[in-house]
Amino acid sequence: MQHIHQVTQRARLAPRREPYWAPLSKGRHVGYRKMSGGAGTWVARYYDEGTRKKTYKALGDFSLQPDHQRYDLATRAAAQWFEHISRGGLTTVTTVKDACDHYVTHQRRMRSEKAAHDAEQRFKNYVLNDPKLAAMDLAKLTPSHIAAWRKALQDKPKKNGKPRSNSSFNRDMTCFRAALNLALEDGFVTTNFAWRSKLKPLKGVDRRRELYLNIEQRRTFIAHAADDLAQFLRGMSLVPLRPGALAKLQVAQYDPRLQTLSVGSDKAGQGRRIALPQTTAKLFEELCRDQPGTAPIFRRANGKAWNKDAWKHPVSDAVTAADLPAGTTMYTLRHSTITDLVQTGLDTLTVAQISGTSVRMIELYYGHLTREHAKNALATLAL
Asked: 7-86, which class in CATH?
């Protein structure tokens, strides 16, 4: 064993590939690899008594720091790594990119291909576009790294050049936070200190949706739309699906015998079967009659399925013609139908399952309605 804690001692060492080791505690060493030309790098070595294996970790050369501080910096970095291992952390280096890739794989296995693709695109656009951050060891992440990333994301405009909304910022940030939390859960890192406080979402962003169309307004909306769009609007008014989910429905997904609609995986990540009432089933039967199983149930005049680009301008024209409130969209119909379901007293779990969202989101946006319903119910108990 050679003494490596002093600059003069390290200067006398002969260059060699094998590091000069100094013990820190039992099974834990810090090493100095002397290179030709006088430069050197630092290494940590961990001995596992259970497996009788040695594991090594490169610590760097600390060349930006004064010579007399490098031993202390190396021992400190080695101690952090030893602590990481003692808490059950992996001995291999896991980068930010590894954590993102791991999360995408998890989404693909546990949720859906669409959820995995969405996360993958967010990481590509907002995390991995910074090569330095992507290659960083998770164990070396600090709050300042995350704070810098957060500020850059918040200042980054959308693709159309417009400022990023707070809701959009929260969605992109939440995806990254979820990836880091999964890495913590799976032992890639042993603490969330770097991001625990720096990736908290902005508060007061996801407020209740206030724009609501009553039954008469919805009927007027439909009456002022072209025939093909009118059918689509009727569907949105009868089944509280997302517009994209309704547009993707194919004839084979409707069972006329059982009068049920099978909805595949959407944003909520799970498929479900919805039993339709007689009046709603009648609409679906009319649209599906004499059509092949792969045909879209709600079709444009040219026979193709609707999408947001196809309905954007026709919906805007119908809103204007019907003299509906500014800001009325396809999602307004979804919000209005969910509002009606909640106001009838249907439990939030069932509403969430039908509409393809979480109970938490129903309670966030519509909880004030359930509280009012409960209040009215309690009023009937008055003596």
From this structure: alpha beta
**What is the percentage of the chain residues whose pLDDT exceeds 70?**
88
Query: How far apart are the C-alpha atoms of 6 and 31, rounded to whole Å?
Result: 13
Architecture of the domain made up of 215-379: Orthogonal Bundle (1.10)
Mean pLDDT of 240-249: 91
Contact 56, 45 (CB under 8 A): yes
Instruction: Provide the residue ranges of all domains of the chain, joining segments of one domain with +.
Output: 7-86, 96-185, 215-379
The pLDDT value recorded for residue 262 is 92
Token duo for residue 373: 């319903």
Q: Is the fold of 7-86 the same as that of 215-379?
A: no
pLDDT (tens digit per residue) in 77-117: 888 878 877 766 665 668 999 999 999 999 888 878 888 99
Mean pLDDT, range 159-188, rounded to an integer: 84
